[in-house]
Design goal:
The chain has 11 helices and 8 strands. By secondary structure, the protein is of the alpha+beta class.
Length: 372
């Protein structure tokens, strides 16, 4: 995992292995479509990650949940062609365990309902789950528990509550109670705003000139600010970093970054680009072959909670309206329909993604074709 392509290229070619580049546009679009289908079954949903969600069915009879899970799985596959696994339990922690069993046991046919398990059957299930595989335990707690001869989820579930709280705090105690089928971890129905936003990519080739680095940093700042506005936030700090290829140890190495604090928090892209380019010009060094750059926004706050300079309040509202219009047009007509000139036109430094599959669902030029 994580080995650069060039290091295993010979093995890949000898064994005729298929290689695909990351396709974030396709992943994001399919994820949104899956979540839209899931939200049609219950309003109580937590979007846990790009490929995972928790659904609550408090008002549905327990006897129907297994069939309900099969119906959900069938609809997702019919509409999108994506196989999904469904784990059903009385708590979120047990639902994660059930979901892992689905993936490893084809006889379950994608759905595993544990809500009607007897205590004895649930104990047998938990004895099969290594302690470090329990959601919320982590590697460090896993090592500590194993040193105390707690090897499985079942072992952990029968530990004294006071001991668990003393060793692992309230979070560990909640996990323990959830393994006993007592719900303690609530559904996070409101997506929490990110406290830091990163936009970074490796280049498709080495970049040595400042003007090309400026284009890339401008582009990454644009992406980060879009995400910032999407969650209705503003930021006070911005970090820019650049680095050479550390895999090429025979080449000159240089990796650095710098953070500055803005006079006023903002999500206005031109202002953020201006500050990002200022940082870049301070850290750039001639004579190095750069392979990656990135922008990180931090000190993030909800936009309605910040007191702005009273003399600039009217100007702030105008700038906010400008960005809202640009975001709306780019959403309607496609990313970068309107873009900032500092990001460049050709952008031949961009990641090549030679092995990327087509963006079948978001690009008219990459629709799947079928020969009849």
């Amino acid at each position: 995992m994580g080995v650069p392509y060039f290091k295993v290229k010979d093995i890949i070619e000898q064994n005729k292995i298929f290689v695909y580049s990351s396709n974030y546009t396709l992943y994001g679009d399919l994820s949104e479509r899956v979540m839209n289908i899931l939200s049609g079954y219950t309003p109580n949903i937590e979007y846990y990650s790009i490929d995972e969600a928790f659904l609550s069915f408090d008002k549905i009879y327990m006897e129907s949940l297994g069939e309900y899970g099969k119906e959900i799985r069938k609809k997702v596959f019919k509409n999108l062609g994506l196989p999904v696994s469904v784990g059903i339990a009385r708590t979120k922690t047990l639902a994660k365990i059930a979901n892992e069993f689905v993936k490893k046991n084809s006889k379950l046919e994608g759905v595993f309902d544990t809500t009607r398990f007897t205590d004895e059957r649930m104990s047998r299930l938990l004895k099969q789950v290594p302690i470090h595989d329990v959601w919320g335990i982590g590697s460090q707690y896993g090592k500590m528990l194993m040193s105390m001869r707690v090897y499985s989820a079942y072992d952990f579930s029968i530990m004294p509550e006071l001991w668990v709280k003393q060793k692992m705090g309230i979070v560990g105690l909640r996990t323990c109670m959830e393994l006993r089928q007592k719900p303690c971890i609530r559904l996070e129905e409101i997506v929490k705003a990110k406290k830091g936003i990163m936009s970074s990519r490796s280049f498709g080739r080495y970049v040595t000139e400042l003007n090309e680095l400026e284009e890339s940093v401008s582009q990454y700042t644009t992406r980060a600010s879009e995400k910032l506005r999407a969650q209705k936030s503003i930021c006070r700090s911005i970090n820019v970093f650049i680095q050479t290829n550390h895999h090429k140890i025979h080449e000159k190495q240089y990796s650095t970054g710098r953070t500055i604090t803005l006079q006023e928090p903002t999500s206005y892209t031109p202002e953020l680009i201006k500050e990002a380019l200022y940082i870049l010009r301070k850290i750039f060094r001639k004579g190095y072959k750069f392979i990656k750059a990135g922008v990180y926004l931090s000190d993030i706050y909800p936009e309605e909670n910040i007191q702005l300079n009273m003399y600039r309040n009217t100007e702030h509202n105008k700038l906010k309206s400008v960005m809202k219009a640009i975001d709306g047009l780019n959403h309607e007509w496609g990313r970068d329909t309107i873009k900032f000139a500092s990001s460049g036109i050709e952008q031949d430094w961009k990641m090549k993604m030679c092995f990327r599959s087509n963006r079948y669902t978001t690009n008219w030029n990459e629709l799947m074709t079928v020969n009849v």
